[in-house]
Amino acid sequence: MRSSRKIDDVVIVGAGLVGASLAVALQGAPLQLSLIEPKPPAPAEGWDARIYAISPASRAFLQSIGVWQLLPAGRMEAVRRMEVFGDAGGKLEFSAYETGVAELAWIVEGGAIARALWSRLDSQENLELICPGQPALLDITDAAVRVSLEGGRSIDGHLVVGADGARSFVRQETMPAPVVAPYGQLGVVANFTCERPHRGTAYQWFRNDGVLAWLPLPEQKMSMVWSTPEAHAQELLGLPTEDLCARVAEAGSHVLGRLECITAAAAFPLTKLSVNRLVAPRVALVGDAAHVVHPLAGQGVNLGFADAAALAGVLKSAHAGADMGDFGLLRRFERSRAEDILAMRSATDGLVRLFRENVPGMRRLRNSGLNSVDRMPVLKTLLAAHALGFH
Ligand SMILES: Cc1cc2nc3c(=O)[nH]c(=O)nc-3n(C[C@H](O)[C@H](O)[C@H](O)COP(=O)(O)OP(=O)(O)OC[C@H]3O[C@@H](n4cnc5c(N)ncnc54)[C@H](O)[C@@H]3O)c2cc1C
User: What is the mean pLDDT of residues 345-374?
Assistant: First the structure.
């Protein structure tokens, strides 16, 4: 039991992918940091059920902080093509070649990124990693922030960053309640070995029972995310493995032939969460603490990495000895992120609504919309560039 006397520049609460990447991005800066997290990443074991489509912008960020280089090359797959299908014959195709990039995204296991980030934290001189650690109280005064941990220790700082996920303690203690709207869907995830090679193609089907995505993995494997109403998700989870494989293969029109399940199916509730402000006096929010979007665009963690990159950039640009909780600095961070977050939220929400509506004519309209975009190379490239994180 002791009360810390030093005052950190930045106290980061939550060392998921976003909080840990922020800490690593501040490595070498003349700042003292604390990072508080209840549990370390799980050790590698089989294939991870949580797989991310990492945009080129996120890859560039992870590379710039020396983390991309640590990822196991044999467990990642480049997406070179993407095929999107509507629910009545609409189809949209993207290719890295047409878009003028080497790859559209990289598919990487969440656990692999977490372990690579944590291996950088271990040797970080300007950081105290407090794990296990869990905040119990947060006191904010004009001059400082005090985070009191379960167990009695307290950490003082100039800025507290909430990187503690969708149920953020930091947000709850410092901001008005967010707007939370459950989609009434679960994201069912599982990994499969495929009979036919995917050739680096990601597939997405907008179906009347939700959105089905297949993301390519190495060794002729793929990862599925099926965002679907709860009752259907529960039915999928209850199927014997062979029946699940058959159901998933059929839902994807057997484009990769027969499927064999290599991880047990799991499900996550899908909820939209938005806040009006990313900052408050001496507080900033990043990642899912600040925004939760539907996984159909596979952009949640990419938005979070962009938050971490932007906040690290603003903090590092401040003059030596500056107060990291200065509200002017925090506003700069908030302004730099507003457009990106709003655009992603509107786009994913719009798509969810567009493909959920069953009013007469809507089905034809949305499918012919996909086909029209497919015939407009400039618009397609612009859409792809936005989705990839190029602006
Ligand atoms: C089914 C599904 C599929 C998805 N697929 C994709 C995809 O393909 N691509 C993509 O970009 N995104 C995807 N996402 C979204 C992505 O998972 C999140 O956006 C991302 O994990 C957010 O990272 P984060 O670090 O902000 O939050 P989290 O991953 O939630 O991490 C928060 C961290 O804070 C810690 N924490 C929690 N509470 C406290 C506390 N009180 N004190 C201290 N620490 C605390 C937690 O232990 C955790 O380590 C998907 C989401 C779902 C549900």
Answer: 70
